[in-house]
Amino acid sequence: MLALLSAADEDETLNASSYLPLSIGRTWIYRDTTSYGDAYNNSTCAIVDTTTMDRYETYILVVEFEGYAPDTSYIQRRDDGIYQLIVNDAMSLSRCIKITQTQSIRKIMPNKFRIGSTWQIDSFDSSYETGIISYHVSSIANAQAMGIENIAVPAGDFPNCLKVYDIRQLSYIIINTTSGETLVNNYSSSQRYCWYAPGVGKVKSIEDTGDSITRTSILTSYITGE
Fold first, then answer.
1. pLDDT at 191
2. Total structural domains within the chain
3. How far apart are CA 201 and CA 198, in angstroms?
4. In this structure, is residue 1 part of a structural domain?
5. What is the distance of C-alpha 207 from the center of its chain?
6. Which helix (H) or strand (E) holds 212?
7. Residue 43 included in any domain
8. Integer Cα distance of 102 and 93 in angstroms
9. Is 144 within 8 Å of 165 (Cβ atoms)?
10. Looking at residue 188, what is its pLDDT?
11. How many CB atoms lie within 10 A of CB 131?
12. 3-class DSSP state of 64
């Protein structure tokens, strides 16, 4: 059951480090389902090591989905927030269209914020031509801290969870440069709610992919690490 706390808590300054704890050995295991009721994957996220990138201490995050090769990304606590760096992410967003950008940098959360605060997660705008065909892909994602709620999942009952809403808008255009004809002009958007428990991290998310499918991820167990 969700329980929204009083509006008085909206004046409180919140710290991202409380909701996104980072240390080697931290592990989160999720059960992921779709709106059709089928389990499409169980996933394990683990911080396996640290390194230094662009002068920032960087946590190496490995995500494993059942039946797939592991994905590696990098988490940084920068001067203005906590970021996730994903190599070659733009390739998947563009649906296999060649993009010169090889690293996506996403702002997960500002270091300090209040309920109602908004921030830009990321954006990109890129074009590519092959022969007489021109491709253009653009994307922007924004987030907002919505409130504080209590969340119950298989891993336990978590009071005072931060609820964050984000929306991503994607434009995908293909043009015949000889005739000027627009061959494809697609626009899509996806929305997601995430709940972060103090001292634990993300415990639940619900995503509307924009294609009539809702994906839900809930925490089943976790390890706090070092």
1. 94
2. 1
3. 7
4. no
5. 10
6. none
7. yes
8. 12
9. yes
10. 82
11. 8
12. strand
87 domain residue, yes or no: yes
pTM of this structure? 0.83
Helices assigned H by DSSP within the chain? 16-19, 89-93
185 CB contacts (<8 Å, ≥6 apart)?
172, 173, 174
Q: How many CB atoms lie within 10 A of CB 76?
A: 20
Domain range holding 88? 7-223
Report the DSSP pairing between strands 81-87 and 71-77: antiparallel
| Secondary structure string (H, E, C) spanning 131-171 | CCEEEEEEEEEEEEEEEEEEEEECCEEEEEEEEEEEEEEEE
* pLDDT at residue 26, rounded to an integer: 96
User: Is residue 55 helix, strand or coil?
Assistant: coil
Chain-centroid distance, C-alpha 3: 24
Instruction: Render each residue's pLDDT in the chain as its tens digit; 226 residues.
Output: 333 443 335 678 999 999 999 999 999 999 988 877 655 678 999 999 999 988 999 999 999 987 788 889 999 999 999 999 987 544 333 333 443 344 689 999 999 999 999 999 999 888 888 889 999 888 899 999 999 999 999 999 999 999 999 999 988 899 999 998 999 988 888 899 999 999 999 999 999 877 778 889 999 999 997 6
Q: From CA 168, how far away is CA 106, in angstroms rounded? A: 12
CATH, residue 204 = 2.40.360
Residue 2 lies in a domain: no
- Residue 33 tokens read as 């389902």
